[in-house]
Amino acid sequence: QKEVEQDPGPLSVPEGAIVSLNCTYSNSAFQYFMWYRQYSRKGPELLMYTYSSGNKEDGRFTAQVDKSSKYISLFIRDSQPSDSATYLCAMSNNQGGKLIFGQGTELSVKP
Amino acid sequence: GAVVSQHPSRVICKSGTSVKIECRSLDFQATTMFWYRQFPKKSLMLMATSNEGSKATYEQGVEKDKFLINHASLTLSTLTVTSAHPEDSSFYICSAKSSTGIIWGSDTQYFGPGTRLTVL
Whole-angstrom Cα distance, residue B39 to residue B116? Predict the structure, then answer.
């Protein structure tokens, strides 16, 4: 079993839809949770960073962490074609520690 | 803030040659940099962790004599792929860890744009 599981998609939605991206994990020691966005042939860009459980909101993006279920989510409201990219979840068990990435979910937002 | 650059962005070389890739943190100091490899439609695979002024720590299965890493300063790490072969063709991405919590929490990793290596 992989430490971090993420559905690779592809996921296709119409413009304006609410997108839900998810990852599950098996290591209960993970404390730091991140979501990265990666456009084709580019490096990952940090979108959201959460420590421990709870929600964090930034504009159209909301990150949720449920440590009891070992489940994290990224919600994108009012999705735009420019949101089309691969979204990678990542997590670590200590500050500065090795990041464990999910496989990435390929998202396509159609105009 | 928190910009990481890589050079070159793309390189094509002949089999048997060595290729050097540079990773720079442009507006912050990075005591630790990481080197990843990514295959098409796959996630990032950590190759090694580079600490300024000390030897790099390689992940299991990564040949340290083939992938030479040097972290000479707080803003520069280099990865040299020695005696490259076609199977080394890949997308190589570095990240730098800021210990001062520039934007998000401390110790967040910021990624470079990647270097696409093609070995003929």
Answer: 10
Task: Per residue of chain B (120 residues), give pLDDT as tens.
Answer: 688 999 999 999 999 999 999 999 998 888 889 999 998 877 889 999 988 888 899 999 999 999 999 988 889 999 999 999 999 999 999 999 876 654 555 567 889 999 999 999
Beta-strand runs (E) in A2-94: 4-5, 11-14, 19-25, 32-38, 45-51, 54-58, 61-66, 71-76, 85-92
pLDDT for the residue numbered B29: 86
pLDDT score recorded for residue B104: 55
Q: What distance in Å separates residue B83's CA from the closest CA in chain A?
A: 25
Phi first, then psi: give them for residue B15, nearest 5 degrees.
-60, 135
| Amino acid in the structure at residue B22 | E
Hey, what amino acid is at B17? T
Taking a C-beta distance cutoff of 8 angstroms, is the pair A102, B112 a contact? no
Yes or no, beta carbons of B41 and A106 under 8 Å apart:
yes
Query: What is the overall mean pLDDT for chain A?
Result: 92
Contacts of A46 in chain B (CB under 8 A): 103-104, 108-111
Q: How many CB pairs under 8 A join A and B?
A: 56
Closest residue to A46, CB basis, from B6, B108, B112: B108
